[in-house]
Amino acid sequence: MQKNASNELSGKGRAEFARPEIEFEDKEANVSDFGLIDIPGLFALWVLAVIVFLQFFTRYVLNDSLAWTEEIARYLLVLVAFLGAISVTRKGTHIFLEFFYRYLSPTVGKWLSVTMEALCFVFYGYLAWLAVELAQKTRTKMASIEIPKSLLYWGVAIALAAMTVFAALWLIRKIRLSPTELLRDQEERSLHEISD
User: Fold this and answer.
1) What is the pTM of this model?
2) What's the pLDDT tens digit per position in 25-53?
3) Can you tell me the distance from the alpha carbon of 40 to that of 13, in angstroms, rounded to the nearest whole number?
4) CA–CA separation, 54 vs 51, rounded Å?
5) How many CB atoms lie within 10 A of CB 85?
6) What average pLDDT does the segment 71-95 reach?
7) Cα gap 45→5, rounded to integer Å
8) How much is the mean pLDDT over the chain?
9) Could you write out the three-class secondary structure of 27-73?
10) Which of 41, 132, 34 is CA-nearest to residue 79?
11) Mean pLDDT of the 100-106 span
12) CA-closest candidate to residue 55, choices 76, 79, 81, 80
């Protein structure tokens, strides 16, 4: 018993119980699929980071907060979400429930995937239409800075329109692929592998 206690304190014997599928190595970031359409989202993210840092610094270090940083950060966060969604839609890596695809026949799985992509296409298109209508009707300006709020809604509308285009491209691709190719493609884009 004393030997076990000393082994626990010294760290010996702990690796014996480690699960073999856990990897403890750092993997390099893969930015090979970064495109020009991803730049606005990345830019908005960095501007948001600078403004939030400025807000923190002026509030807690200088004890004199800038009034405009909170409102601008809130609107930039909305833009980051929608511009980031363009990248995810372009890559086809939105979260999806892969459980059903694994237990359905390949043909049923294909048509389920095509149906879901068609729903996404219609949903993004409808939201883009609503965002355009909202942007056209908005006449107010931001409370802290004289910038029209409609600019935010136009940015959201453009992002949703781009998502609609990419969803249409994915829909066409999914229709053209055979059921087994489509399921293999979805498996490659998911985070989990099917164990044989």
Assistant:
1) 0.77
2) 666 766 777 888 989 999 999 999 999 99
3) 50
4) 5
5) 19
6) 92
7) 49
8) 84
9) CCCCCCCCCHHHHHHHHHHHHHHHHHHHHHHHHHHCCCCCCHHHHHH
10) 41
11) 78
12) 76
Is residue 171 within 8 A of residue 117, CB to CB? The reply is yes
Based on C-alpha coordinates, what's the Rg of the chain? 24
The answer to whether 120 touches 96, Cβ cutoff 8 Å, is: no
Residue spans per domain, the chain: 36-91, 95-138+146-196
Tokens of 51: 């403004």
List the Cα angle 49/54/60 in 5-degree steps.
120
pLDDT at 133 over 50: yes
Q: Of 176, 170, 187, whose CA–CA distance to 86 is shortest? A: 170
Which of 53-57, 59-63, 126-130 is predicted most confidently? 126-130
3-state secondary structure of 92: coil
